């Protein structure tokens, strides 16, 4: 755990409620009029220069959405959202679309610099150069030797730049914004878009299908191991603007890709809506590893402001022996409603979900996963660590099901919750359903409080209280942190420490 | 080095008074043994010295190098040089022992205004200290105290003590749960740390430990007070005749 010391240093430097990424950038924007209608959808589609099939797809989704009701089953509470009071499109004026780095507005580059995100190709993500503690660490197999990461930077409604495209193209990998993919690779998009999360899937996914603005597209052809980490950084900047990103990742037979997603937003008094859809498709023997560090603005100490994060993420293990692995570190957002799931369709396919959800202040988290076993000999593994502090509510909600033909389906679920203080809540809601008698499901759950004994012991060694808690919490989440690519693992540990700042006392 | 004056302390939760007018002075370089029957307040004394919040001092004072430590929290006391080897060391899941040592050592260095240890220097110190306690380096990669045997836990405590180089070492029943070989290793570890500027408070039930760690003074604690003090012969006397005689004398 090389980041503990860092966590400690950071925690010390930062005052309570100091969301580090809360700055706002003044940039000239091109906006759609407020509200939602067929005209707005036509406006978005036209802005993106989309083919007519795409517009039709959006309109169909919109008409469907009008018939749907907002879901209320999650353990989250918030005032009703006025969907006509949101801007659905906002793009920096200077950037007509993805372009080369030299064309990008220097103001935008500054934003990413401030966020610590490398857009120049010679740069690497902070945290990669481990000069320290490396002797103490077990070597990790998910580290790319080059330490380089290709980045797609999405600012409000558009992708501003994608790096390393040329080098990736040489390997046959397509990595670009979804808008560009719709124009340049329509056959792939038409084949796969909506094939995992149909437009009719749920209220927010349907809304996203109608109005999505940008996101990333990844295609790794047969037999190719993507030569570097791919990542997308989402930034919400404009006031009263929703962000509706759409990401589609396809790994053909035998392909491998590891993808990271990060996100931040300015500090504002109003709530902002973020409703994304992510679809993953893994064909025979393919593997997709998808990691998220979610750090949207969580609201202030009184629970004012913050992002509503209503996200549908689903992976389809379409081919035999395919594998999809979700890892998420959730520290931000006022409300999180998110269940990255796997459909285990191919025989011998496997799905994994590793999650750390940290809530503090008045944050509400309702997150978990679904593992749908359809093929034979499919296996899934769920490791969820919820940490609740302050007045927050933290719910794990999971579903594991084995269908009639899913012989020998296996699942292992472990949900641990850690409470800090006595004003917060942790809840575990597992659903399990086996329609096949050969299925083997295991479920373990624990809820614990950081014990006074543990804290006293750690402090007795000279480690101050907040650092002692960060140390114990980092130990608690270690199983999951180990699943993250190293570039993110360090960042994630720091983030957890910062998120729990002010949780004691 | 340590001066406990008319100390009264109670359990915060239910107000039970455990320490009732305790006086004790330990000089630099001294090894003081605290003995006493069960429930006499020995472990409570060690917790109060280390600053545990479950106890409240209602009267008296604890002076460490002439300064009261009552307002200091456990971490501040630790960085000022007070170390408690726990009777029951806590398990810290997911935190490798090695990592824990690094964080603790560097926190203490930071509190003293020193630079963090460079990794090679850190590893060198740990390797040396572990070897002297016959500890396997592989064990230090495991989470601290998780799945350690009783003997391993006690060794890990002494290892931390060695590396943190405290000035006042409080050993709470360090001999409990140790077989004779482990007792020898742990005692040798403690003896190697004896120094003119370092004091020890060795809390134990039995004379057995004091055969290995020979004390300069022996104090009998009973109902929250030191009822008798003497040299090492007092421990032998207690071993032979039990506490009844001493308690009767005091009463």
Automatic annotation (TrEMBL), chain A:
A Pfam family reported for this protein in Swiss-Prot or TrEMBL: SUFBD_core
> Which residues are in the SUF system FeS cluster assembly SufBD N-terminal domain?
165-226
Q: Which residues form the SUF system FeS cluster assembly SufBD core domain?
A: 234-476
Which biological processes are named by the entry's GO terms? iron-sulfur cluster assembly
Family indicated by similarity: Belongs to the iron-sulfur cluster assembly SufBD family.
This protein's name:
Fe-S cluster assembly protein SufB
Identify the species of origin: Mesorhizobium jarvisii
Automatic annotation (TrEMBL), chain B:
Q: Which residues cross the membrane?
A: none
In terms of InterPro entries, this protein maps to: AAA+_ATPase (IPR003593), ABC_transporter-like_ATP-bd (IPR003439), FeS-cluster_ATPase_SufC (IPR010230), P-loop_NTPase (IPR027417)
Q: Which UniProt keywords apply?
A: ATP-binding, Nucleotide-binding
Q: Does the keyword ATP-binding feature in the UniProt annotation?
A: yes
Is ATP-binding included in the keywords of this UniProt record? yes
GO: which molecular function terms? ATP binding; ATP hydrolysis activity
* Residues in coiled coil: none
Q: Which family does it belong to?
A: Belongs to the ABC transporter superfamily. Ycf16 family.
Q: Per its record, how is this protein called by name?
A: Fe-S cluster assembly ATPase SufC
Gene that specifies this protein: sufC
